[in-house]
Amino acid sequence: MQSKKLYVGNLGYALTPEELSELFATYGVVQSVNIIEGKGFGFVEMSTQTEAEAAKLALNNSDFKGRTLKVDEARPPKERQGGQRPRGGGQRRY
């Protein structure tokens, strides 16, 4: 694992950043927490790779507030080409 940033999936929609931070703080210093609102996932950045690995090993597939967490190394964001969305009228023509 090379990153200190972790992807955390299958979060409850009512979960707060403070609750997620508290959960991960058991494994080291949490530098940042970003929950993507309305999507059920977020990101936690730990202070070291070692802490991130320990949190990943301990929390992946664990139960938290009735949900099975998915914890993995966060991937870098994909680059968008030209900043434009793909075009399409929303209807398919056959």
Account of the protein in words:
The protein has about 90 residues and is an alpha+beta fold. The protein has a single domain (about 5-70), classed as Alpha-Beta Plaits (2-Layer Sandwich), CATH 3.30.70.330. Helix content is about 20%, strand content about 30%. It has helices at about 15-25, 50-60; strands at about 5-10, 30-35, 40-45, 65, 65-70, 70-75. The strands form two sheets. The protein has a four-stranded antiparallel β-sheet with strand order 2-3-1-6, covered by helices on one side. A hairpin with a 4-residue loop joins β2 (about 30-35) and β3. The longest helix has 11 residues, at about 50-60. The termini are far apart. The model has no long low-confidence stretch (mean pLDDT about 90).
- Provide the succession of SSEs: EHEEHEEE
The tally of structural domains comes to: 1
CATH superfamily: RRM (RNA recognition motif) domain
Helix content bin? 10-25%
Number of helices: 2
Mean pLDDT, all residues: 89
- How is the CATH topology named? Alpha-Beta Plaits
CATH class value? Alpha Beta
Radius of gyration: 16 Å
Tell me the number of strands: 6
Segments where pLDDT lies below 50 for 5+ residues? none
Structural class: alpha+beta
Largest sheet: 4 strands, antiparallel
Question: How would you summarize what this structure contains?
Answer:
By secondary structure, this protein is α+β, with helices and mostly antiparallel strands. 21% of the residues lie in helices and 28% in strands.
